[in-house]
Automatic annotation (TrEMBL):
Protein name: DNA polymerase III subunit delta
InterPro entries to which the protein is assigned, alphabetical: DNA_Rep/Repair_Clamp_Loader, P-loop_NTPase
GO BP annotations listed: DNA-templated DNA replication
EC number: 2.7.7.7
Domain of life of the native organism: Bacteria
Keywords: Nucleotidyltransferase, Transferase
One protein family per Pfam: DNA_pol3_delta2
Single annotated GO MF: DNA-directed DNA polymerase activity
Amino acid sequence: MAVWDEWTGQSEAIAVVAAAASASALGGSGDSSMTHSWLITGPPGSGRSNLAYAFATALLSPGTPEGDEAAARQVAARTHPDLAVLATERVIISIEEVRQLVSSSQFSPSVGRYRVMIIEDADRMSERTSNVLLKALEEPPPRTVWILCAPSAADLIPTIRSRVRTVRLRVPAVEEVAALISARDNIDLQTATRAAREAQSHIGMAHRLATNEDARSRRQRTLEIALGIRTVSDAVLAAAALLALAGDDAKAITEEKDAEERESALRSLGIEPGGTIPPALRVQLKNLEEDQKRRATRSLRDGIDRIAVDLLSLYRDILLMQLGVPSDPINLAIHAQLLAAAKISTAPQTLATMDAIATARKRIESNVSPALALEAMLITARRTGPTT
C-alpha cells in the first residue's frame, strides 16, 4: 500500500510531494520538483502534519517513493534515525528547541537518502526564533530536507517564506471526510457524516466526535448554553459554564496521555509502579510534570478555541437563515432551535455576535483572562423571547 493511499480530498498537494519523492528516489536530486525546504499550509484539521510525515516516509524509504513498511513504522513511532521532529506542547516554540534541531540537521543521513527535519506548528516561533531557523534554510547540508507546517504562509516571516516551496492543503468536503472516517474507524456513515459536518471537515475533530460520546455531549451542551442566554447574568454564568466545558475537554485529552508518559518514565528509570522515587531521579519527573502543565495550558486554550469555532458555526447557521440563504446548516440536528433563534434576532445582531467571538479569540491568544473574554463575548449573544 502506498503511503498516500489513506489520503482524501488533497489530490493536488499529493501530486506535488509524490512527484518530488519520485524524483529523489530516481536519484534526481537536481530535479526542480525536489527542493531542500518545504512549507505545508492549510486550515486546522486539513492534515498538515500528517502530510509532512507521509512525505518523510516516502523520502526515507529505500529505493521507493511509495513508502517502505519498515520506514513507515519508524516514522510513525518517530524513531527513524534520519528523522528529527519538533512538535511543542507549549504555547510557543523556544529558541533553544530550534537551535538544537538546527544543530542536528548538520549530520549526514545514517541509512537513507536524506535527513528529514519536521517542525509542526512553525507559526508558534517568534521572530527571533525564526531567524535561527532562517540561517539553516539559507545554507542547508546537501542531503537535509526541512518540512515546516503552519496554517498559512503569512504566519511565517517573509525571509523564511521566500526560501521554502509551499504546498497548500484545502478543506476536504464533508462527504470525503465522512467516507474516510466510516472506512477507517468502522463508524456507520450517518454518524460519520454528522461528525464531519459538525467538525466542519476537520478530520481529527470529526474522528473524535464520531468515536467519543462525551465529546459529542460537550459540543451539544455548548450550543444549548449559547441559545439560552437572555440577560447579562445569563452571559456571565454561561461564560463560567463554557470555561468548565473547555476544562473538561482538555482534561479528557491530556489525562490519559499524562498517565502513560509518567508510567513510561518510571519504567525507563527502573522504578516499579508505586515504588519509592530516589531523590536523585525526582528532578527528571519534575521536568516531566512541568512539561505536562504547559501542555495542559495549551490544551485548555485549544478547548476554548474549539468552543469558539462551534459557536461561530451556530451563529453562521442563524445568519444564513435570517438572510434567506438556501444552505444546509452545519448544526442540522438542532434545525428547529436554529429557526426559532433566527426569528428573535436580526442579521446585524448575529453579525455583531460573530465579530465578538473573533475578538474573544484574539484576546485569549494575547493572554487576556479567558473568563473575562468569554463574558464580554457572550453579552452580545443576549436574545429575548423563547427559542423552543
